[in-house]
Amino acid sequence: MMVFIMCFILFLVGLYGVLTRRNLIKIVIGLTVMEFSVFLFLVLIGYIANGEAPIIVPGIKAPVFVDPLPQAMVLTAIVIGLATTAMLLSIAIRIYKKYGTWDIREIKNLRG
């Protein structure tokens, strides 16, 4: 139960970074922290204490298996998250090249 609370706290740390920071790069880092807290939560859902990988071997009695679905989903989500982060950083760099600042308040005031 404690690890689920730690996942929630990690999510809140990322949310705090997104909501309170004005720097575009720090906002992207906050989004990434939130993303990884969700990944950690999904992996913990599939975890079973003393569980084994779901590989069936003939002649061996079936032990308790770990649910492989959350792990597969997280692996897919990590790849998608990497692409999303790369896209966010490329947009941030384009905004920096256009306005010359990382501060979202200054960017908001600039028109053009």
TrEMBL record:
Give compartment(s).
Cell membrane
Q: Which InterPro entries match?
A: CPA3_antiporter_subunitC (IPR050601), NUOK/Mnh_C1-like (IPR039428)
- Asked if the keyword Transmembrane helix belongs to this entry, the reply reads yes
Task: Write out the transmembrane intervals.
Answer: 27-51, 72-96
GO CC annotation, single: plasma membrane
Query: How does the entry describe its membrane topology?
Result: Multi-pass membrane protein
Which keywords does this chain's UniProt record carry?
Cell membrane, Membrane, Transmembrane, Transmembrane helix
Q: Which domain of life is it from?
A: Bacteria
Q: Family assignment?
A: Belongs to the CPA3 antiporters (TC 2.A.63) subunit C family.
Instruction: Cite the PANTHER family for this sequence.
Output: ANTIPORTER SUBUNIT MNHC2-RELATED (PTHR34583:SF2)
Q: What is this protein called?
A: Mrp complex subunit C1
